[in-house]
Specification:
By secondary structure, the chain is mostly beta strands. The protein is 12% helix and 33% strand. The protein is globular and about 45 Å long. 43% of the residues are buried.
């Protein structure tokens, strides 16, 4: 079961290891966000991409597997600014990373403080799947909270039905009030499950719970914006909330 854009899900004790997959290389062609250079004057090239979102002035949250192993990270904002991003904290077990960015990246997204997330709640993902192949802008998908735990009852994850692809990693999972309730992290390997069960699962994806992300941020000196979760917005409205605060991340080597 390859997670989105690489990395591994926490395993249950005694469970067999699950295979992981590195993201495919970005399609060939000119890229206006390359930046940087290798020793000897050779330009670095983007090898993978992901999503991040603003959690405090000059700070972004994403997955650690998005930032891991990059010689350089670049963040493209909704205004088209291309800014260097630097990891300043990580939690490999939760698969979270805090990035520092010098420049205006947008307002912090608020995290939901209550009520408790329930099965069946509508959710919205916002991010940059398959960068260079699909739309150059952000993509919005909708779905529901399918389960309150992840693979093999992982208590740190939600299972969600909102479709996600390579590149959605690190993006915000939002409720219908525009509040962050999670961080998109992984998807089920449908082909592998079909080989085992004979059935092709659909829209089985996972997000790190918002409470896990809050604990990580607070432990690293970040005071996120907090707000009660009150529904009432359309998915399009939620997208407008997320748009100025969500960035495309490119990993260069």
């Amino acid at each position: 079961m390859p997670p989105i854009a690489g990395g591994a899900l926490p395993e249950a004790a005694g469970a067999p290891a699950l295979p992981t997959a590195k993201p495919p290389p970005l399609p060939p062609g000119p890229d206006p966000f390359l930046g940087g250079a290798r020793p000897g004057g050779l330009a670095r090239r983007p090898v993978s991409s992901g999503t991040g979102f603003v959690v405090a002035p000059g700070r972004l949250l994403t997955n650690w597997h998005v930032a891991e192993g990059c010689a350089e990270l670049r963040a493209r904002t909704s205004r088209g600014l291309d800014l260097p991003a630097q990891p300043v904290a990580r939690d490999a077990q939760r698969d979270l990373a805090l990035l520092a960015v010098a420049g205006e990246v947008g307002p912090p997204l608020p995290f939901r403080t209550g009520p408790e997330v329930r099965r069946g709640e509508g959710v919205v993902t916002y991010g940059f799947p398959l960068a260079g192949m699909l739309s150059s802008g952000a993509t919005l998908t909708t779905g529901d909270i399918s389960a309150l735990s992840g693979l093999r009852d992982n208590p740190r994850h939600y299972q969600i039905s909102a479709p996600v692809q390579v590149g959605n990693s690190g993006g915000p999972l939002l409720d219908l009030g525009g509040r962050v309730i999670g961080v998109v992290v992984a998807k089920l390997d449908a082909q592998r499950i079909a080989q085992v069960t004979g059935d092709l699962p659909q829209n089985v994806n996972f997000a790190v719970k918002g409470g896990e992300a809050l604990e990580f941020l607070q432990r690293n000196g970040i005071r996120p914006v907090l707000a009660d979760g009150r529904a009432g917005l359309s998915a399009a409205d939620v997208g407008e909330v997320a748009e100025p605060s969500t960035v495309l991340l490119r990993c260069l080597r």
